[in-house]
Every structure is written in C-alpha cells, then in structure tokens.
Predict the 3D structure of the following.
Amino acid sequence: MSFVSLQLSDPVLRSVTAKGYTEPTPIQAEAIPLLLNGRDVIGSAQTGTGKTAAFALPILTKLQGHQRDTRALILEPTRELALQVEAAFKTYAQFTDLRVAVLYGGVGYGLQLDALKKGVDVIIATPGRLLDHVQRGGCRLNHVQYLVLDEADRMLDMGFLPDVRRIIDKCPKARQTALFSATIPPQIETLIQWTMTNPQTIEIGRRQSPAETVKHVIYPVAEVQKMPLLLALLDHVHYQSVIVFCRTRRRADDAARLLKQNQHSVAVLHSDRTQKEREKALEGFREGRYEVLVATDIAARGLDIQDVSHVINLDVPLHPEDYVHRIGRTGRAAATGDAFTIMVAEDGPQVFDIERFINQKIPRERLAGFDYQYTALFDAEKTAQPNVRPSGVKAVRVRGGYFFSPGKGGRKRR
Ligand code: AMP
C-alpha cells in the first residue's frame, strides 16, 4: 500500500514524501481511512508504530486551511509527549497554512497566550494547563471537531482522568474522537463509552505484547551489588545508547552520579527536573551527546527516542505494564535491542507478575567476570556460571559492595 492511495490532501502527502516515508505503517494503513471517513477510533498499538502520523495526517487533511477557531485538540499525558507530538504536527503541516500550538505546565503563560491570540487550528496540550487557559478565557474549545486522547492509560495512571472529562465536557458533542491506549483498563472502558460513538477498534500486534525483537534477560544479584552490576553491564555490552530505568527520582539521581563518576556521559529525566532540564536531557540524548539516559517511568511511554540499543531496568518496575512500556524504548522499528533487568530477591513477586503479563519466562543470566556475592536467588538457578574474576581487573568499593572494573576503557561499541 502507498500513501497516495490513502486520499490525504496534497500538502499533507507532500510532507510525508519530504519526511521520506515510503509506505504507511500497519496502524496508519488501518486508522487513516477510518478517521478520514469520520469514524471514532480506538487504537492499541505498540509504541514506535507510527501512531502519531496515524491521527495527525487525517486530521490535517480534514482541517484543510487555517481558520480562527481551534478545531482539533490532542491531549497528551506529559509535556515531553506534547512537545514531540507538536513537532510531528508541525512537520506534517509544513506545506499548509494551519497553525499548531502546544500548551503545557511548568512554564510561563505569556508565549502560549500569544500563540492562542493569533488563532490556532490545532492545540496539543496536557490536561491541567489546557484547563487553566480555558478557565482564564485564553482558549475556547466550543469549535473542536477532532479530539484525540493519546496514551489514555497513562493519563489514568497520572490521575488526569477528571481533568480529561472536564475538557471533553467543554467540547461540542458532535465531534470525532480517537483514543490511543496500550491497555484498556475498566476506567478507560467507561471513558470510551461516555465519550465515543460506535468506535472502531484497531489492534496492531498483540495488545500488551513487548516488542518482539527485544531479547530479555534478568540478572539476579544481591541488593548491595545492583549499582556495581549496572556499571559492569555497561562495560560489557556493545551499546550505542542506553536508557537506565529507576523506580524513584532519588535512585535516578544516585545512578546518574555513579555513572558520571565512571566516565559515562549521562542525562537524567525525571519529574523533579525543571522543564528546561528535561528538554535538554532528551534533546542531548536524541542527538547522541549523552550515551546513557537515566529515567524514571515518566520517560517510559510514548517518547520517540530512536536507536536505543539497550534498556536496563536498575529496578524492577512495580507494574507489569511499565515493564512493557520501558522495553518499548528499544527494538523500535524492528532494530534488535536488549532489555536487561537487574533483580534482587525481594523482586520475586513483581518478576513473576511481569512474566505472566508478557506470557513468557525471561531467562536468568549471570554476567561472566562479575564477582557475585551470594544471593538466595542463585539457589533457584540451574545454570550457574563459574564465578571468575578476569585478569587485569581491579576491585572498587561502592556503597558497601565490591565490584571489579576493567583496568582501562572497557566500553565497547558496535
Ligand atoms: P510514533 O509511533 O508516532 O512515535 O512514531 C515512531 C517513529 O516512526 C517516528 O520517528 C516517525 O517519524 C516514524 N514514522 C512514522 N510513520 C512512518 C512511516 N510511514 N514510515 C517510516 N517511519 C515512520
């Protein structure tokens, strides 16, 4: 199938060609005709599937030319996603006269108000800031014809559903709605019933299924050796870019500090950072200035980060869905990626839940050359490898544990 057969408008088609896309991805092939035909659509697709263009291209086609009133509204759970989707909309709208604005919290109102005053066709927003603008009279939603609820399950996790409902209440009832969500928990099901009309569901790939190109491995270790094992893993793998996921902001800061001390170039992404810092971290990581991004789950969903060769879970995520979202950062666009999870004895129940959720047993491995301390987890292992320390390796003490780092420049690249 080609984009030409999809009946997109000429300027939108031009932008697709300029972007170098040769054929629609499966979700685009399914969603674009439905949205162009005016259907409500529920999309569940793995991240990195081209979901943004799947709704942006038909909406931009239908909007045709600039008008004063805002006719399309895209709700996103995080500022990072809002910025990413804004960039995509601006690219796809580059040959039209349509105006796109992004509204998110944590920054001043001035620039956003200026943009709104000029009249924008498309608003991409996080719920809280959008409501602020609506309540202050800076923006009106009474002409919205196209509404997209992106990453709806994430909005639920972040407690945004009441705001989302308030926003939907301010939009006209006669509108077209699209909802994208990796999972459909009961609250989202209720939202769907309340807000959508006869929606068509598109499922690309098995729902809740982690990217199939990813090789998963669990590394059991004693609690005190988590950080040393992280360093050793980084020294052993041939990585291009890696995201290290942590459960808490503090943990992320600690890990980042340790990695920096060990000559890794590191950016940190969590919600205690200012908006500027978060943008800088993401931009630097995307551009390859940082090899390692240490992040809490805020970065796990939806963000379009290309070429992540490895994901390392320094902490097992509490919710199985977060495991799927975390590893969705690697193996995108069918590149193979590796997902490593560092596991301590207390993580047993969570790991069991993850394995049940993804319906596969994740192999346990031991890193050759790492000087393991005993953990009860090893008793469960059938295939323990010899505990050898390679020559030319020195012992370093970190936070009460020891690890052995290669004498010089152990990092290898592809
Ligand atoms: P998304 O799932 O929307 O975050 O998109 C993931 C990545 O795929 C983005 O970098 C898009 O630019 C890219 N992309 C979207 N559609 C296509 C396509 N039809 N062909 C090639 N790349 C695409």
